[in-house]
Amino acid sequence: MNILLSGGTGFIGKALVRYFIQRGHVVYVLTRRSKQDEERVRYIPWMTGEERELDYLKDNPIDVCINLAGEPMYDEKWTSIKKERIITSRIEATTRMISLVKQMEVKPHTFIQGSSTEYYGFAQDERFTDRSLPHLNSFSSEVCEIWENTFLLLNEPKVRMVTARMGIVLDDEDGPLEKLATPIRYYLGGKVASGEQWVSWIHLYDLVRMLDHIINSPAIIGPVNVTSPNPVRMDELGKMIAEKLHKPYWLPLQDWLLKMIYGERSDWIIEGKYVYPEKVTKQGFTFLYPTLSDALFEIYS
C-alpha cells in the first residue's frame, strides 16, 4: 500500500511509519521540514505556500490517508494566542489534506482522521462508546469537535471516512506516560487530585495495530474509540508506575495546585472519562496489551 501521512514526525506518527514500512508499505510523510528520503519513506514538503504535493504523488496513487497534524496541545500555557494556534493548525492541515484528496484522480479507499477522547468532555459517571455524544465542557473537547467537523467536509463517496479518537497513549519514549512518571522518578509521586478520575489509555503498539486493523476492515466507518477496553482510575495508574519504577508513592498532589501551575491544561489529569472501544471490539480486534499491567510490564521490562 501507499500511505499518505501528516503528523508523521510526532511520536505516534513515527511509530506508524516504523510499523508500516516493516510490513512492506511505502509511507509518504507530509512535512514542513526538509528531510532526506529513506527506504520506503518519502518526505513531501507541504503547507509551504507552493501547494505542489501532488507533483510528488502523480505516479504513486495513494491507498490510505492518515491525518494527525496539529499544534501540540500540552507543551505550553494555553494563552489566547496558543489556543488560536491549536485550532487554526488543525483546521488548516485537515483542509489541505482534504484538498489533496479531492484533486487526486485515483482516490484513496480510506481516510483516517486523528482526534482524541477529549472530544467527549468530562463526566465521571458516564461510559462513552463510539456512539456517545460530547459534553463540550472543556477547551480540548471544543477543539476536537471543530477538528472532526472540518474532516466531514471531505464528503467523497468513494473514500471511507474514519475518525480515530485516541486515548492517553502509553509508550516508553515520549508522551503522557513520561509526564506522569517524572515526579515519581524523583520520589514525589502520590495521588493526583481525587485519584478517582478515569484514565482511558492505550499502549502505543496497540494503537498502530488498531489503525492497521481499521484500514483492513471496510465495515468500520465513522468515529472509533482508540483505547484499551480496560480504563483505570488515576490512582491505580500512579501506583502501578511507582511499583514498576521501585519508587515510593506518598505525596498527594491537590487539584488546586495543578490548576495554579498548569491552568486549563490540568484538565486531562484532574478530570477523567471512561471510554470503551466498542466498534473495533465488535469487529474482532485483539489487544496485545488489554490491561494496564500488561502495558506497563512491556514498557518497563
UniProtKB/TrEMBL annotation:
UniProt similarity note: Belongs to the NAD(P)-dependent epimerase/dehydratase family. SDR39U1 subfamily.
Protein name in the entry: Multidrug MFS transporter
Any matching Pfam family: Epimerase
NCBIfam families assigned: yfcH
Domain NAD-dependent epimerase/dehydratase residues, every copy: 3-219
Organism of provenance: Pontibacillus litoralis JSM 072002
Segments forming domain DUF1731: 256-296
Upper lineage: Bacteria, Bacillati, Bacillota, Bacilli, Bacillales
InterPro entries membership: DUF1731, Epimerase_deHydtase, NAD(P)-bd_dom_sf, SDR39U1
